[in-house]
Amino acid sequence: MADKTNNEAEQKDTIAPKEWALEIAQLISDRHGYDIVILQVGEISPITDYLLIATGTSDRQLVSVADELQRLGKKKGNKVWKVAGQDSGDWVVLDFVDVVVHLFSEDLRRYYDLELIWGEAPRVEWERDEPAENAR
Q1: Residue among 1, 77, 7 nearest 40 (CA)
Q2: What would the pLDDT profile of 64-114 be if each residue is shown by its tens digit?
Q3: Range of the domain at 84
């Protein structure tokens, strides 16, 4: 499943999946998430176009970032379809359909090692921008 065409994105009034994944990565980075990896899995999986994996500093931080991503997604026209793990906070999954986000505690990230499972997927290079003024 490749990126959606511009026509489909315009019809849904959303931003393109890659740009959405990059925006998610930036927000997570601004909120002190780390080891953020974006994998382009659309060519090897029918489930999603991009898989984003990040590590948080605490359960509370992971849940807070998940809440903020849901609000941002709704605002940007990329409403979350499903959320799992928000009660426990050590592994939160947000399914935005074209982008699936995994927010992990450090221990669970090492244990499940999703990068190894999706090892053949190309990584999307991204660079953290300066934090937004409202990031504090």
Answers
A1: 1
A2: 999 999 999 999 999 999 999 998 889 999 999 999 999 999 999 999 999
A3: 6-135
Instruction: List pLDDT tens digits, range 39-55.
Output: 999 999 999 999 999 99
Does residue 69 fall inside a structural domain? yes
Count structural domains, the chain. 1
Determine, yes or no, domain membership for 28: yes
Structure tokens at 124: 């999307």
- Cα distance between residue 103 and residue 91, in whole Å: 6
One-letter amino acid identity for 59? D
Q: What is the DSSP letter of 49?
A: S
CATH number at residue 31: 3.30.460.10
In-domain check, residue 1: no
Q: C-alpha distances in angstroms, 53 versus 7, 29, 75, 136?
A: 28, 12, 22, 22
